[in-house]
Design a protein that fits this description.
The protein has 127 residues and is mainly alpha-helical. The chain contains four helices and two strands, in the order αααββα. The protein binds heme C (HEC).
Length: 127
């Protein structure tokens, strides 16, 4: 029984790390130019903008220590055109969709790739 549990835990963490590494690739491809390789808001294109890209390493810190996953995903995907300085990314996430349940229990159809990206961003949070 314990062995099974260990296998289940290993399988789960393998899934989580796959999510994170897929997210890291997306981040490097689409976000680093503005937000910087480490997410500190210091990418080469970002420096040219009239408004500095956000430091993506402090999202949890500025949200009482909790990673604001829904807000982050909405920012990147949910409200195209609302943020004039960020490109429209919905085409990037035009892959498989899964049902995602947030902390409040609300479920929504969410692109797998968007969850991957958010999973990666969660790992770069500084406390
Ligand atoms: C062309 C430059 C540019 C690119 C590319 C870009 N961003 Fe941004 N981003 C910005 C700017 C500028 C801001 C701050 C102004 C604003 O909120 O619109 C911002 C803000 C954000 C915020 C809001 C942070 C907060 O405090 O709420 C998030 C999250 C974010 N970006 C994530 C991403 C992700 C993930 C990607 C890649 C899919 C990305 N951005 C690509 C320029 C960019």
């Amino acid at each position: 029984m314990r062995k099974l549990l260990v296998i289940a835990v290993l399988a789960l963490s393998a899934c989580a790390s796959q999510e994170v590494s897929r997210g890291a690739v997306l981040y490097a491809d689409y976000c680093a130019v503005c937000h910087g390789e480490q997410g500190r808001g210091d990418g080469p294109v970002g420096a040219e903008l009239p408004l500095a890209p956000a430091d993506l390493g402090v999202l949890s810190r500025s949200n009482e220590g909790v990673f604001p996953r829904r807000r982050v995903m909405a920012k990147v995907y949910g409200y195209p055109g609302r943020f004039e300085f960020m490109p429209e990314f919905s085409a990037v996430f035009a892959g498989p969709v899964v049902m995602w349940k947030d902390d409040t229990g609300e479920t929504s159809e969410t692109p797998r790739a968007l969850l991957d990206l958010a999973g990666y961003l969660e790992t770069i949070q500084q406390n």
